[in-house]
Amino acid sequence: MENNAHHNAPHPFVGMWVTADGHIRQELRPDGRYDEARGSRKSAYTGRYTVTGSHIDYVDDTGFTATGDVRDGVLYHEHLVLYRENEVPASA
């Protein structure tokens, strides 16, 4: 029997990404959806995303589109710089 476990593994970009000050928190979920909180506004933006290589295309539920790129473990999303929740550098 073939082991399909690797087909069900989440994409490496899945998880919580945050700005250095923690004000913006973007969760990339394994189901292809994202949820972005801004300050005290939970789910300020929600929608779907697709990944091609290191590039992310976002489509907000309102139809707004945005892009991002992951380089050296950092997510550059439009004008934002986000880090893995547990990897925010002290000097950022």
Question: Which structural class should the secondary elements be placed in?
Answer: mainly beta
Largest sheet properties: 8 strands, antiparallel, barrel
Shape: globular
Number of helices: 1
What can you see in these coordinates?
This protein is mainly beta. The protein is 4% helix and 54% strand. It contains one helix and eight strands. An eight-stranded antiparallel beta barrel has the order 1-2-3-4-5-6-7-8. The N terminus is likely disordered.
What is the strand and helix layout of this fold?
Layout (H helix, E strand, L loop, with lengths): L4 H4 L6 E5 L4 E5 L4 E6 L2 E12 L2 E6 L4 E7 L2 E4 L2 E5 L8
Antiparallel strand pairs: 1-2, 1-8, 2-3, 3-4, 4-5, 5-6, 6-7, 7-8
Give a short synopsis of this structure.
The chain is mainly beta.
Give keywords.
92 residues; mainly beta; eight-stranded antiparallel β-barrel; 4% helix; globular; disordered N terminus
